[in-house]
Amino acid sequence: MRKSTFFASTAALVLASLAAALPARADCGIEKGSVRILANDFDGLRLVLSEAEKCASGTVKVITNQTTEHKNLQVPALKISPAEYTVAVIANNSIVPLLNEGLLRPLDDLVAKYGQDLLPTQLIKLDGKVMAVAFMGNSQHLFLRKDILEKAGLAQPKSYEDILAAAKAIREKGLMDYPLSASDKAGWDLAAEFVNMYLGYGGELFEAGSAVPAIRNEKGLAALATMKAMTEYMNPDYMTYNADEIIKVYAAGKTAIINGWGSLANGAIDPAKAADGVGDNTVLVGAPTVGGGSVPAAALWWDGFSIARNISDEDAEASFRAMVYGIRPEVGQNNPDLATWLTKDYKPGRVAVGVLETANGGAKPYPMLPYMGLLHTALGAELAEFMQGRESAEEALKDVEAAYTAAAREGGFLK
Amino acid sequence: MPHRAFFAFIMPSLAAMLLFIALPIVSVAVQSLYVQHERVVTEVETCTPFSGCTKETRVDAEATEKLRNDEPLGRFNGFGTYLDRNHLAVTEIGAILSDNAGFKDTVARVYNLPFYRALAFTLTYTFVVTPFAMLLGFCIALGVNAIPPFYKGPVIFFSLLPMIVTPLVGALIVYWMASSQGILGATLQVLLNDPTLSLKSSAVLTWITLLVYGIWHNAPFSFVVFYAGLQTVPHDTLESAMIDGASRWERIRFVVIPHLMPLATFVGLVQLMDNFRVFEPIVGFSAEANATSLSWSIFNDLRGQVDQLFGSAAATSMLTIVGVIILLSPVLVRTWRDFNRR
Amino acid sequence: MMVTKRRQPLPLAVLSTGFVLLWVFMAAFPFIWTVWGSFKVEQDFFSRDSWWFAIEGTRTIARTGSAFTGDGYYGAWVLRDFFSSVINTVIVTVSVVVVSLTFGTLGGYALARSGYRYTFWLLMLALVFRAMPHITLVSGYLLPFFEMNIWGYMPTAIIVLVAINQPFTLWMLHSFFLSIPKDLDESAMVDGCSRFQAFRLVVIPVMWPGVITTGLFSFLLAYNDFAVTAMLLSQPNQTMVPKIASFLGTVQQEGNVMFAVAAVVSATAPLFVLVLFFQRQIVSGLTAGAVKG
């Protein structure tokens, strides 16, 4: 039985890391301490954590817990003293609850002592203090089928307006029934899509310096109108398509233009997963602009790590050094296609191009505001009716504000 | 049985329930009456990998913690959370009732409120799936009872499959089969001669799909219990009914069904309760846009995002318990009468 | 019923058998489809083109050269170490069943034998307990469990599952005990047994079928649980269902659905043996008890 290439490569990767983990104990320079890491469960982090585990020795204990439930465990796990985990691997949304509760420690002295390999851009600074170290970036960006665009006689679209025109042309030429797809599934995906679009229009989600929502304006309406206009060229099931699904639909050759996650790009161009002709004809470019705006309509994300407050300084030092070893530049250099690394001397692989182009285009990061999660939840729940044409855009935004306001009052952010 | 012996016997079970269910319920009930402290928010400079540095608001964790140390539960809010827009929405309902453009408008606007939207599907699901699943289970039990004993083992196993395959993946696979490229969805398109038919795209079809899945998933439980009950139907009664010239249907109607009635109460009780807490099918079928339930609202409060809205989830949980008690009250009254007769 | 069956007229027999066949087909088809599909690549089993790909294995042939592949099983069992979660599941389910039944038989017996009014209220209270959504309970456990340093260990998850399962177990066993004549244990006590001896030596032997039936439902609860095990167990103690969920991937990150499909098939197969083995007891067990309501 011949294994697929993807399979073989994953197998080799995992086996290599297993084999490496067994005999070779890396010298991370840690004398003693206990390292306990809580993280999400996916390939990129599995690699980083397996590298950090190499720091284990007779006096250094490394325990990891990789679970998709990490977001729900992190606050209670770090609240106790000593904390259950010394390291929380977080992203720019999941760091917020930990900051809100004040459960993270400033890392400035550790960075100064052991962070020679870290780039200044990797440091997440709040009020001048380093609170987290980022090592992977991610964003949504365009996946284009250049063969379809050529057949339709179109140039590469740069904006959502171009995309709508392209979709019309592709359908009229009979090349595809549903040239567009977006992650419009009610809930997290739909809200992320709105945030992207709204940021692309240059909108501000909140009134400056407060938790009062500010999305009921022309930019909000325009963002919704563009999202709705695109659904005309989508499969009627679009309300059930999440980020994973649109990549798979794209890889199956059923759609021509999507704004998909960079972290999933491998699934669209890997010849083992994509239908014939899709991988070779795919171009990954930065996210499009919208409404004449200058910045790409996509929020930027990062994955990084933070160190718990309620632990001994010794454990904090051991944890920091183990994590810095786990994300040392060679890890990114040797696995360029596993993620878009933010670490030193990273040479982007093929799949990282889109994310970097989006970032270089000046896209805004996903807001790290204390009450952003509440707005995200409200958006995900209340926009669904509009997207299905059962409600006007004005009413949808009004519902979002009402739902958010009730939640923010309970959270203590609004009176 | 004397009190002492009674409590000695029930102690382990009671202790487990009190510690792990009753205590949490009390704390949840208390929690639902409080909201979080006003957060002390400050503006600080924030630097991230892509955008350089900007001024952004942050929670001043130290100052907030000070407030929290004084009053660990938060600010007392009474039934405020129960009555706000994301739950019973009393103010909004009042506004709708006092100013609306007829019945249709009222229904549409009430349905727009998240709690009532969830309640509508929850109740529909409960009252459609429970009776139909029980009926289907009963018919299967009658049918299986009549097949040769040799085949019964495998038939029972296959009949239980909808119940024992992990719903997490079971729902995903059935969902895929029902999608327009899947074997069921594509077959339906051919049968109904409508190549654009998609069970996922319209609200009505999504509801019907979920209801059918619910019946399919729940029927095996009723089947097992009823099948067992059928084994005990007294022979003599059936024989004498036959001698009296009762038809097959009359025998089922007047002998078998009355005999199974207490069992049906038990099944109905359990099923009503489980169906009222419907959750997995909604996630498994990606149906959030068209159908939400109370349990889904709780899930959304606790897991939908990085923040956890404990107060809100606690209020919805208490409302779920109240809902279950209301639903079960006829059965409870009956049990109370039976008990007093004993 | 045997008598009536012999006399079933032909049209009714055909109708009844036809109905059972139809149901078995409906019940079993998705699973059989899954078993078949677990030997294909994802692009076939979850094909965006047509379900016909899953039958013919078009992409599977293109990728692996054969119409069947064991990649899903290889991935789940070898690469992602499904075996350790199988072991954990066995430990958790067996313990939950044993402890649930021990607590449940004791409590159910007491509830069935005591005539005082508080037994009714206890039964009602158990129902209210059962109405509480599990996910709210579990979120409330986290902080205290972390503080007491009992989070992540199997015994914690086991006792929580037992407690959550108690209301159902108590109700079911209570009805079984009602069907056993009181005279049985009372005469034993007259003969000089203590209450507990009468329970253990006289009542329990008669109760086996009821215990086994209730055990089956406890087993299914522990076996299929996601809410409790996913939140209360650390990675080394993870059971099958959270493991399968982790195969499915998360937002922004791709999973491997075929690992999950293969894992589900492997997890369901042993149940076939189990159900066949206990089939007789299940039926005779339910017969003995629940009928009395």
Automatic annotation (TrEMBL), chain A:
Classification via InterPro entries: Bact_solute-bd_prot1, SBP
Cell compartment(s), UniProt: Periplasm
Protein name (record): Carbohydrate ABC transporter substrate-binding protein (CUT1 family)
Family the UniProt entry places it in: Belongs to the bacterial solute-binding protein 1 family.
Record's keyword terms, sorted: Coiled coil, Periplasm, Signal
GO cellular component: periplasmic space
Pfam families on file: SBP_bac_1
Residue ranges that the Swiss-Prot or TrEMBL entry lists as coiled coil: 383-410
From TrEMBL, chain B:
One CC-aspect GO term: plasma membrane
Pfam families with a match to the protein in the record: BPD_transp_1 (PF00528)
One example of a Gene Ontology biological process annotation: transmembrane transport
Cellular compartments annotated: Cell membrane
Domain ABC transmembrane type-1: 119-331
Main localization, broad class: membrane
UniProt cross-references to InterPro entries, sorted A to Z: ABC_transporter_permease, MetI-like, MetI-like_sf
Keywords, alphabetical: Cell membrane, Membrane, Transmembrane, Transmembrane helix, Transport
Membrane topology of the entry: Multi-pass membrane protein
Residue ranges of the TM segments: 7-30, 118-143, 155-178, 204-230, 251-273, 309-333
Signal sequence, start to end: none
Family (UniProt): Belongs to the binding-protein-dependent transport system permease family.
Protein name as annotated: Carbohydrate ABC transporter membrane protein 1 (CUT1 family)
The organism's taxonomic lineage, starting at the top: Bacteria, Pseudomonadati, Pseudomonadota, Alphaproteobacteria, Hyphomicrobiales
UniProtKB/TrEMBL annotation, chain C:
Domain ABC transmembrane type-1: from-to ranges: 86-276
UniProt-annotated location(s): Cell membrane
Superkingdom in the source lineage: Bacteria
An example Gene Ontology biological process: transmembrane transport
Protein topology in the membrane: Multi-pass membrane protein
Keywords of this entry: Cell membrane, Membrane, Transmembrane, Transmembrane helix, Transport
Family that this chain belongs to: Belongs to the binding-protein-dependent transport system permease family.
Protein name (record): Carbohydrate ABC transporter membrane protein 2 (CUT1 family)
Organism annotation: Shinella granuli
Lineage: Bacteria, Pseudomonadati, Pseudomonadota, Alphaproteobacteria, Hyphomicrobiales
